[in-house]
Each structure stands twice: as structure tokens, then as C-alpha cells.
Amino acid sequence: MKAELISVGTELLLGDILNTNAQYLSKELAALGITVHRESVIGDNPDRLAQLVEDAKGRSDLLLFTGGLGPTGDDLTKETVARVFHDELVLDEGELDKIRMYFECRGGMPHNNEKQAMVPKRGEKIENTCGTAPGVLFRDEGCTAILMPGVPHEMRTMFERSVRGRLMEMAGGAIVSTMLHIFGPGESSLEEMVGDLLEGANPTAALYAKNCEVAVRVTARGADEKEAAALRDQLTARFRERLGDLIYSEDAEGLENVVVPLLVGKRQRLATAESCTGGLLAQRITSVGGASEMFDFGAVTYASSIKRRILGVKPSTLKKYGAVSSVTAAEMAFGIQREAKADFGVGITGIAGPGGGTADKPVGTVYVAVSTGHRVWVKRLSVEHSERSRVRRMSSQHALDMVRRLALGLEIPDARCFGRHAAEEF
Amino acid sequence: MKAELISVGTELLLGDILNTNAQYLSKELAALGITVHRESVIGDNPDRLAQLVEDAKGRSDLLLFTGGLGPTGDDLTKETVARVFHDELVLDEGELDKIRMYFECRGGMPHNNEKQAMVPKRGEKIENTCGTAPGVLFRDEGCTAILMPGVPHEMRTMFERSVRGRLMEMAGGAIVSTMLHIFGPGESSLEEMVGDLLEGANPTAALYAKNCEVAVRVTARGADEKEAAALRDQLTARFRERLGDLIYSEDAEGLENVVVPLLVGKRQRLATAESCTGGLLAQRITSVGGASEMFDFGAVTYASSIKRRILGVKPSTLKKYGAVSSVTAAEMAFGIQREAKADFGVGITGIAGPGGGTADKPVGTVYVAVSTGHRVWVKRLSVEHSERSRVRRMSSQHALDMVRRLALGLEIPDARCFGRHAAEEF
């Protein structure tokens, strides 16, 4: 099945909006095994839109539209596509009632909105549970057009509730997929580790790298969902065998979304002491709802005087090893853990750049330490040739992964372990 | 002049990549007064690409391509467009030397990369200062095609250095623009304040809302840059008259990028005590290089016990007013300012959601306080019907804006001012 995406809206052509809808739908269609041959963006101009729809209808089996279902005179997608698909629009009293009800406590329905209740005579309407404009579906000469709103959350909800199922039927059989989230190896190392598993046709697997981590999407198609799931699970198991605890999660993206529930479940608490990450780690942890059950205190200790006073880092440590050192990181971790009476204390100190690098400790040198009270694990990172934001992000990734590993009783690769008096053992 | 954007790459059709290039170019062309009529994404398929280029060449004056200039067999944009534009590609020895040099310390040039040195015989090559693939320009039958790399930073650098000037010439005259960054009013209030200034044809002004703030882009066209700049400055001055200190910056985006240099310049220091924002404010401040000159200490005090112990918030305050109250925010601000010996202390406490709201203090209720040691200013925010991330972002925006206003001696709208013993005055 050949598909095309058509996004309608002059605001897209002016660059006022980033077209995230196109990426979302591309991914979803890829997961359904439907090939997208072309994506177009066109303004709110009925002649140009009609020309594009004519062309697309001639060369593709499925057209997915977003945008142009609003109440204003500019919103012409439905009227234009109806014409090209030889259908007509009729008033749907049920939809009109819904729209009226929506506006009842908002000062009454503007006259304009009535046109949102127009639905195809031959085609179908598609329920919109988040807004006033229903989606619509037209069929003509072997081509199907599905029109969805342009507002991303309305579109996504409609797609998930009502469109995906229809497409699955059209594509025949069932398609299921899962995402494995991996922290540790970079994209190319991962490709070396699992390259041979990326080559199958069904199930398929694809690598994605972003935000200082990597993900693998495993997708399978079968006659029904059970058959598809069995195929997917077979391949997923092979990735699990190969990658083991490098996979931090299936489906939940973001290490913080794994670490927070993990510690909440174990009734363990975490505290953070950050220098170069400047609060990024605390911010990621507290971005998860319910973090207050495992997080009491985070300190952003930029100045050495604050590292001494709040965290109890020893003046002799700062003098002998410097503020950016494994011993300082270890003492920060011990200090915050003690101060917050937490189960885990994290200490991060490093050089995020652009200034501050030296020959021994270039920009990108970061020490990440996690203390459990009696012992502390410290990693030295070299996030070279990177921007400040990447150095910071990567440091917070390592910190979260170290906590995850300690909470699960896993080894921490490339970390050194010290006792309470790190400086003496160094 | 009618323009089209064409992005080439199967990875875009699969949704692996968000098409930020299209938005960037749309904005830039809009600023140059060039109308984009259509944007297309097409895969690495020479027949489909050729068909699209034929069609586009017939209906538009300018085609801007991104992607498909790489060294692999899939990268066919240059070859395909050359054919449609009746031009041919010849080897450019200078480019080949550059590519060889680039690979010299990387183990030698792979044979594939030689094709990146092919340039148009009739058309032009466009220098790439960030990568190995030069851009190219073809002209045929009144249509100009410009091909740039797909890697965003290579494309942007090439656009800024070599393409924008060419387009300006093609569009005739000079175009200049400026961006006014505004914090305070929402998009619709701003539209009421300056709606009449948004209607001109030259200079033009357009509103953009994102990340809990609004921006106005003022663009003018003139016979030369001087004339264009004079027109732009006239309209900019009218916005300044109307909006005054609501404009926090011209061109530098992000309140942290204004507040950090402002305090560094005044040799003033800031400290932060955050509850519901969980380190977001500290993180924004320390994301700016050089923040260590104005920032020593940020505390993320989630637990009441930590608010008491680290910040000295009074048990009686917590008991009488609660952790989410203006008095607690004020005492947090005083506490961190004293503890860090800073000029300004910020305290933020609130309910970011999704849980924790009450009838009196629903989700989105946040108190932001800024202390100068003797006095404290407190604002109550109601960021209603918003996600956790928006409540947090908006709170950090208000905090930064309050600091900016205090540092500049401006009034803080909607804030109450207390002395040292906020609880007694309340």
C-alpha cells in the first residue's frame, strides 16, 4: 500500500510551526508496515490544494491529511478533498449538538463552527474526543483519504483511537512493535553488537539514537495479533540475550522514568549534589510525577565554599585534587547522602565548557559518584568534542544509570569503588 | 517569486528524523519576503524524485533542496536534479583535494566520497565550510535549484554564508529583521496591545508564541540595507513605545541569556531555592556559559525538613501557612540568599501536578519570591489547565523576569513586597 501525508496550513509554510505531525505519522505508518512515498505541506489555498490532491489520488492508495478542519474561512481541506473524491458534505445533527454543547459554557457557538459538523455523505466521520472538529474519511477509485485535525494532541488521540485500527485492517493482519531503550553503548558500537539482528524483513528491528542514548524498535507483522506478538517477542528475546542489562526499559523512555518508580517501589530515597550539571539531574528526577516520594534534597554547589559548607567536602581534598576530581565527586556524594539522610547520594563535578578545560582535564571531563553511605562508586567520563548541553546531559545519564544499577544490584561498568575515606584510598 | 522546499531522504519518510530544516528554511524565506508555496519530502528514489523535480520546476521559480548530497549510492539528489535541469556534473579537482585532505588524518578517502567533488558544468558550486559535500546551484528555463546538505548545522551554515545573499539578490533589494522577545502577556493579550502594528506590508511584524513567552519578528525590505534597517527600526521603535520593559531582549532568546550577563556585568550574585521547579531554574541559569561568575548555590528543597534545615524556613510558617504559600516562598528566598551570601535569593514553591491540588490551591498554584536581603517580592501564579512541565517552565520564567526587573530597578507587576519578617506582615 502506497501512502502520502499531506499537511495543510499556511503557518507551516511560514515556518511558524514545526511539523511534528508528519514525523509522528511517518513513524506510525512505518510501524504498520505501510510505505510513505511522499509528504507535502501546502497552504490554505483551495486551488493549489485541489491540484495536489488530484495528483496524490492518482498515484497513491492512502492519503493522510492533517490541518484545515477548523471553523474559519481559511479551513478548506474537507470541502476541497470532498470535491476531488466526488463526495458531498451534509450536516450531521449529532455533531452539531456536540459542538453546541461544547460552546454552551463558553458564551454560545460562533456561527462559523457550524461547518465543523458537516460530514461526508458516502464516506465516514471519525470521532474527535479532544476538540470540536470530527475527522472524516473519503473513498474513491481505490484511494482512501483520511482527514485529521492539525492540533497535535487532537490528531494523535484520533489516530490512536480510531485511525490506527482502520489502517491495520487495510494493511491486512496485525502489526505489533516494542521499543527497547538502551544506555551505555553509542550507536556504532551497538550496531557492531547487534548488526545481524537488524537485517530481517519480518520481524524487523531499527536503531534510533537521540538524547545521549539509543533505542531499538522491534516490529512484527502476523495474521493476527497473537502471531505478530510471538514473532516480535522472539526477536526481542535475542536482543535481550545480547544486550542484557544495557536495556534499561521496554517502552518507557528516559532513565528518570525508570529510576523514580524503581526507588519509590523499594522505598529508597535519593539526593543529588551537582556542580557542572547545575540542577539538570534534579530537574529530570522531579519532572516525574510522584518524585517527592524518593527525593528530598538536591544541591547545586557551584562554588567551592558551598561544596565545603553544605556537603562537607574537605578543604584538603579541594586543595590536593581540585574541585574536578574523583575524590571531590565522592565526598559530594557522601555529603549529600548524609545531609539528606538518603539511601543514595549522587555527586557530579566536571567541566561542561566552553571554557575551563586544561590539558589534563579537557572540556568534557566529568566525575560522577554515587554513594550508599559506606561505599561510593565513581566514574570518570570524557564527553569530548561536545557542546555544554551534551556534556551535561550525558553526565546526568550516567548518574541515573549508576543509581539504577546499584538499586538493582547490577555491576557498574568502568566505575571504581571506594570506602568512606575515598581520599586515603586514592 | 514562488518557491518550493524539497527534502530528500527515506529516513524522513520513516519518521526517524524530525524535519527541522523545512521549518528553518520556511522562516528564513518568509523573512526575505519569498513565498513558499509547497514543501515536499521524498525518499532516496531517483524516479520519484525526478518526477517531483519536473513538476516543481514547471510551477515554481526557486527550488531549495536539502539532503541526498552524501557519498553513498542512495544519495542521488545532485545527479537527478542535474538531469532535469539539463546540466551535467564534472569533477572539480579543488573540491576533490579538500575532501582528500579531510580524510587524510582519518585513514584515507573512501572511494565513494569522490562523487561529492562533482559540480555542475553550467551551474555553480556553493562552498561547504562544515562538511565534505559542496552545495550546488542549477538554472534552467527561469527556475533556479539550490541543493544543500541535509545535516542541519551544515545546511544552516551554508545558507547563512552563501545562500541567503544570493536569494536576497534574486528577491531584489535588502531585507533585515529583528526579533523582540517579550515576557508577561500571553499571545492574545499581546495581539490586543499591538494588533494594529501587525498589519503593514513593509515593514511587517509577526507574533510567535512558544516556551511560555512571545516574540515579535519585525522585517523590512529596502533598496539597500540602510533603507531596510531604517524602516525596521521605525516599526521596532513603535513596539518599544507600546511594550516598554515587557520586551526583555532584542535577538537574544531566553530570559537566562539576559539575566546571567546582566548580573555578571553588575557583579551581583544569585542563589536559588526551588521546590516544585525541582532544579529547572538552576539548570537554566547554569546552562549559560560563565554562570559561575554569578551563581554559587542552588538548593532543591522538596522535603519540609530540608526547607527548615537548609533554608531556615520556620516550623511555625510551615504549620500556619503550609509549604505552598507566599510566606514559605519568602522565607525560602531569604534563607538561600543569606546562606549563599548572594545579592538575590529566589524561592519557588507550588503545585506542579498532576496530583497535590486542593480547592484553595489547585494544580498550577505557584509562589515565586525574590529577596534582596532586606525585602522580598512575592508573586502568586495560577498556571491553570497545564501540564507539570508547563507549570514548572512558567514558574522559572517568572522567577527570571523578577530578577531581571529588580536588577534593572524596574517595577514587578502583580507582586507584593514584604520586609524581613514576611509572616508578621502577612
Automatic annotation (TrEMBL), chains A, B:
It comes from Anaerofilum hominis. CDD domains: cinA. Residues 4-170 form the MoaB/Mog domain. This is Putative competence-damage inducible protein. It comes from the Bacteria. PANTHER family: NICOTINAMIDE-NUCLEOTIDE AMIDOHYDROLASE PNCC (PTHR13939), NMN AMIDOHYDROLASE-LIKE PROTEIN YFAY (PTHR13939:SF0). The lineage of its organism: Bacteria, Bacillati, Bacillota, Clostridia, Eubacteriales. It holds the Pfam family CinA. Belongs to the CinA family.
